[in-house]
UniProtKB/TrEMBL annotation:
Protein name: Translation initiation factor IF-2
Natural source organism: Sphingomonas xanthus
Entry's family note: Belongs to the TRAFAC class translation factor GTPase superfamily. Classic translation factor GTPase family. IF-2 subfamily.
Domain named Tr-type G: residues: 77-245
Role: One of the essential components for the initiation of protein synthesis. Protects formylmethionyl-tRNA from spontaneous hydrolysis and promotes its binding to the 30S ribosomal subunits. Also involved in the hydrolysis of GTP during the formation of the 70S ribosomal complex.
Length: 370
């Protein structure tokens, strides 16, 4: 923040960069548009042009939308976002595939499915459910650690022939800590050695009382392998979603969370984001964590180009200058100069964090005491 390029300053003052260069020349300075000038010179220029100076603190540079609450009358229903968790080999991937496969068979999915980290399934009544296709606790806890709570409902998968295992208990604890409602999918009921009742009893020891035992946690017996009772699971999700009355304002600048991001050889940085409120549009100028850019194209979970994505819709976003991290927030800003400013600021914060965690030299120790 100690220096700014002439071009950037002109942009913020809404003046022509050439006029600034001219004014600087009169002040005895030969600078080009892309050159940086110090804060004092910048202030001199600003007053010279008759603008008021507002020194911004660091917290003014970054974006904080947490206080920006949508009025009740702007809210519309949105689909629930579901994460499937459970012990390894209990059938998380099989269940996700089975649900998605069932949707493909009803024809609405158009056959080709693509892995983008999240997908939507349409119900018979046209309502939708969004599944995060990054199962496991890692994605869930990493996102939560970064302040992103994108999951509305957790489906806990427990294999009926294996019962509660360490990762099942971990998932229960994470879900409780996040305050997210849970549905228990008792899987592999096709197996002769399946003991669903034993699963329900084991859950009691962790204060999970399923409906079958007189509690209020929905439990559904399924077989991902035989595709048994997938409808029952989807119904349970819909019931839970109705209780939650999930809503968001679709008619505003979008806010979204990164679910997955990668560097694609041909397409550059690609981020799968889940829109949380507003509608993301092609052409929007965005900041995502310490990355910035302009939405060049968006692809849905079938690899189809879309122009817009509303609340709870997962899309792949192309056009970022760098690869963001899972859990990063996407915000739409007014112009590219502002996007770069925020991204640069955040990169600086990240760099500072990195250097302060490095061992201190004598020099910096004295410097910090002064
Ligand atoms: P994940 O590690 O939780 O993602 O589990 P997977 O989906 O990879 O499944 C682990 C194994 O269990 C695979 O061999 C699956 O074929 C098998 N499996 C998953 N669901 C069922 C089921 O409903 N019945 C039976 N018999 N096997 C299943
Ligand atoms: Mg798996």
């Amino acid at each position: 923040p100690e220096s700014i390029t002439v071009g950037e300053l002109a942009n913020r003052m809404a003046e022509k960069a050439a006029d600034l260069v001219k004014a600087l020349f009169k002040m005895g300075m030969m600078v080009t548009v892309n050159q940086a000038i110090d804060q004092d010179t910048a202030e001199l220029l600003v007053t010279e042009f008759g603008h008021n100076i507002k020194r911004v603190s660091d917290s003014d540079i970054d974006i904080d939308t947490s206080t920006d609450v949508d009025a009740d009358e702007t809210l519309k229903s949105r689909p629930p976002v579901v994460t499937i968790m459970g012990h390894v080999d209990h059938g998380k991937t099989s269940l996700l595939d089975a649900i998605r496969g069932a949707a493909v068979q009803t024809g609405e999915a158009g056959g080709i499915t693509q892995h983008i980290g999240a997908y939507q399934v349409a119900m018979k009544d046209k309502s939708k459910i969004t599944f995060l296709d990054t199962p496991g606790h890692e994605a869930f806890t990493e996102m939560r650690a970064r302040g992103a709570n994108v999951t509305d409902i957790v489906v806990l998968v427990v294999a009926a022939d294996d019962g509660l295992k360490p990762q099942t208990i971990e998932a229960i604890n994470h879900t409780k800590a996040a305050g997210v409602p849970m549905i228990v999918a008792i899987n592999k009921i096709d197996k002769p050695e399946a003991k669903p009742q034993k699963v329900r009893e084991e859950l009691l020891q962790h204060e999970i009382i399923v409906e079958d035992m007189g509690g209020d946690v929905q439990d559904v017996e399924v077989s991902a392998l035989k595709k048994t009772n997938l409808d029952g699971l989807l119904d349970a999700i819909n019931i839970q979603a109705e209780i939650l009355e999930l809503k968001a304002n679709p008619d505003r600048a979008a806010e979204a969370t990164v679910v997955e991001a990668k560097l694609d050889k041909g397409r550059g940085p690609v981020a799968t984001v889940l829109v949380q409120r507003g509608t993301l549009k092609v052409g929007d100028v965005i900041v995502v964590g310490a990355a910035s850019g302009k939405v060049r194209a968006m692809l849905d979970d079938h690899g189809k180009q879309v122009k817009e994505a509303g609340p709870s819709v997962p899309v792949e976003v192309l056009g970022l200058g760098a690869v963001p991290s899972a859990g990063d927030q996407l915000t739409v800003v007014e112009n590219e100069a502002r996007a770069r400013e925020v991204a640069t600021y955040r990169q600086g914060v990240l760099d500072k964090k990195r250097t302060t965690t490095a061992p201190m030299s004598l020099e910096t120790m004295f410097a910090s005491k002064a």
